[in-house]
């Protein structure tokens, strides 16, 4: 009874979820046990290896690498992987974890040696993708699937860091100088444009003012000429109407002729006074002794005009 219970206990194997186990028979691989309750022959079979098939993390310690431009850097990485074939992982390599670590270190050094220092900082995603592909192919014979590779830190040596800081400082000063000069240039250009636009606007304003002034003078001259013409027309009309009235009066009453002669003589004398009082007056020579003769002559002119009207 005791032996039977012991044999049953030895034949039953419980495999946890996410794990697998390898069974050997007479020193040779027999089969792989999956999760759950499994039964083996306790006399001829034995479980020699049990491992999880879940994804695992492999932390790669920092290692010194030399870039293509001969710069020493320290690189560390994290690898995510899992076993997809338990038999290969156990029988194809003696120490799977150690083999993977050495393989990853070799691949990382090889990839860093292909790049210059600046490229290692800017092409990190590309490096991760390249390492993933190469490691996946290399570990496939071991029954391992590499799912992700991440480079964590890329640290140059102290001397290189100091040189990089100096380079960055110089680059920042260079950019600052460039930005300052560009700002000054744009400011000068804007100022010149502003002055040019101001001069153009000022010239346009003067041109418009001159045109408006000329148009105003032209209109003023036209209005003045129209006013003078209208004035002359009105004076002519007034003179014509006055002559017509005088002619009618002479025709109606001949005795008004002497009164008219007196008015003409009076107007002649007043005209002489006006001419004498003006600033641009001319000298009118008139002999007082000949004034009666002059008046008589004017009167005769009026008499002739009245006869013509008759």
UniProtKB/TrEMBL annotation:
One GO cellular-component annotation of the UniProt record comes to: side of membrane
Domain called Band: residue spans: 10-168
To which protein family does this belong? Belongs to the band 7/mec-2 family.
Pfam families to which the protein is assigned, alphabetical:
Band_7
User: What's the protein called, per UniProt?
Assistant: Band 7 domain-containing protein
Which species?
Neosynechococcus sphagnicola sy1
Compartments reported by the entry: Membrane
| Keywords, sorted A to Z | Membrane, Transmembrane, Transmembrane helix
- Membrane topology recorded in Swiss-Prot or TrEMBL: Single-pass membrane protein
What InterPro entries does the database record attribute to this sequence? Band7/mec-2_domain (IPR050710), Band_7 (IPR001107), Band_7/SPFH_dom_sf (IPR036013), Band_7/stomatin-like_CS (IPR018080), Stomatin_HflK_fam (IPR001972)
SUPFAM superfamilies tied to this protein: Band 7/SPFH domain
